[in-house]
Design brief:
196 residues, single chain, transferase, Rossmann fold, globular, binds glutamine, PdxT/SNO_CS, glutaminase activity, 34% strand, hydrolase
Length: 196
């Protein structure tokens, strides 16, 4: 059985822990970089990307997460986590972890409709997925190595690039566990591949 860690510096940590538990995978709140050695996949939760970046630096996680990624272990970023994974952020002169070949826009759906829900058809995951958006970003542009898994009003809101997965919405805030289950499968498969 694989173990999925949730970066527990800030944001929707408890909700992810609960949804990972429901998939049957083991889970761990990651508060120190040394704990990354104990997990097979990592979730970067929603929250506030600038704050989370400051904490990533403060707790010396930056290089450790990049090294974890280079080992081929899956990483799933939701909302602020998606922003952390992008290699370009609109209107900012620097990105954060730069793991995925995509340019993202923050708070892209505007202040009037800061939060909303939509039913999306998501490649690999299923149709009519109940997606919750909260001050959500979206993917403005992405490279040919990035597969867009879902769109909302023609905007890319979920993507996969090899062992990286990212959503603009919050799959941990609904009872619809199909997205987390898909990530848990990615983690289980990569665990077996990396072990063989
Ligand atoms: N719900 C969220 O994670 C919001 C993300 C937030 N808008 C940011 O820029 O970090």
């Amino acid at each position: 059985m694989s173990t999925i860690g949730v970066l527990a510096l800030q944001g929707a940590v408890r909700e992810h822990i609960r949804s990972v538990k429901e998939t049957g995978a083991q889970t761990l709140e990651i508060k120190r970089k040394e704990q990354l050695a104990e997990i097979d996949g990592l979730i970067l939760p929603g929250g506030e990307s600038t704050t989370m970046r400051r904490l990533i630096d403060g707790y010396d996680f930056f290089k450790a997460i990049q090294a974890f990624a280079k080992q081929g272990k899956p990483i799933f970023g939701t909302c602020a986590g998606l922003i952390l994974m992008a290699n370009e952020i609109e209107g900012q002169d620097h990105a954060h972890l730069g793991l995925m070949n995509m340019k993202v826009a923050r708070n892209a759906f505007g202040r009037q409709v800061a939060s909303f829900e939509a039913n999306l058809d998501v490649t690999y995951v299923g149709n009519q997925f109940n997606a919750v958006f909260i001050r959500a970003p979206y993917i403005l542009e992405s490279g040919s190595d990035v597969e867009v898994l879902a769109t909302y009003k023609d905007r890319a809101v979920a993507a996969k690039q090899g062992h990286y997965l990212a959503t603009a919405f919050h799959p941990e805030l609904t009872d619809d566990n199909r997205f987390i289950e898909y990530f848990a499968q990615m983690v289980e498969q990569s665990k077996q591949t990396l072990a063989s």
